[in-house]
Amino acid sequence: xxxxxxxxxxxxxxxxxxxxxxxxxxxxxxxxxxxxxxxxxxxxxxxxxxxxxxxxxxxxxxxxxxxxxxxxxxxxxxxxxxxxxxxxxxxxxxxxxxxxxxxxxxxxxxxxxxxxxxxxxxxxxxxxxxxxxxxxxxxxxxxxxxxxxxxxxxxxxxxxxxxxxxxxxxxxxxxxxxxxxxxxxxxxxxxxxxxxxxxxxxxxxxxxxxxxxxxxxxxxxxxxxxxxxxxxxxxxxxxxxxxxxxxxxxxxxxxxxxxxxxxxxxxxxxxxxxxxxxxxxxxxxxxxxxxxxxxxxxxxxxxxxxxxxxxxxxxxxxxxxxxxxxxxxxxxxxxxxxxxxxxxxxxxxxxxxxxxxxxxxxxxxxxxxxxxxxxxxxxxxxx
Length: 383
Fold this sequence. Notes:
By secondary structure, the protein is mainly α. It has helices spanning 41-65, 69-82, 89-102, 116-128, 133-152, 182-194, 200-209, 213-218, 259-272, 290-300, 310-321, 326-333, 339-348, 367-382, and strands at residues 2-7, 13-22, 30-38, 224-225, 230-233, 236-238, 243-245, 253-256. α11 packs across α13. The longest helix is centred in the first third of the chain and has 25 residues, at 41-65.
């Protein structure tokens, strides 16, 4: 609390009153008020008394309402940073960024007042702006995790479950992943060699190892054991935070070096001279330009315009078609479970190929011959 004299830009003397009150129950709650351009000290003292009453009332109201959504999110962020060691910095930043983007209108509202209707409104706005069902589900899950933390740690009182409870978005229709067949892969690499594309080493290593883009960027010659013919994948470069971190799965793995890959790496090693990195540092690769470069090149040579990650899918599906057991592919590619593998198995067509060859329904009934004759008669009548 304070009453002070001051001069404005024209040199005139005025008085101002200032009041700041912090809650004794919840120190994070603080209310401040100012009043300027007062003509006398007595007027300033009267205004100070009025401001004090206003501040006390607001503090009491906020104590009753509990923490705001913004304070809840900040508390959760601090918890994730200090207590949840299993969550990497990149993921934590993404969680908070999602909440700031999609729940910014809640920031100064009391968290306990946020209802199921508020969550539905956010999801409907996302739907209207074109967000996929899967992304809407991601946002709903993050909101739920923040609320669950607040309830479990008594950041919010008087609430026993998240406002996301009971909201179902259904499942989005799964789209068939992009893929190149073996002939298209060969065309991609042969055309890249013929045209002298600097991306040839990157694309070749991608389809022969199944490594992710960041893993390829971070790969060093010290990770490559040509004698024992294996590559150790233990790190990945993240273009967003511009640093090398752990792999997506969080653990290291080994990738066997095939005879084709051995020849390629031996030649690449001779060309790299004293370079520590296996692959050359191409322009704007560190900024995440690899996807655009591949799409443009594929379009230019008449291939489907695919994402860079498609090269990893190509690696997996070719191994599946060659009869490599799924559990081995899972270990080589670094997937934690077989759920992702199932998509590639379906994409490769291994689980259904030949399944209908045993059917012998029409062979003894001459149905096909009769159908052909009927079709021919119909054509004659039409003619």
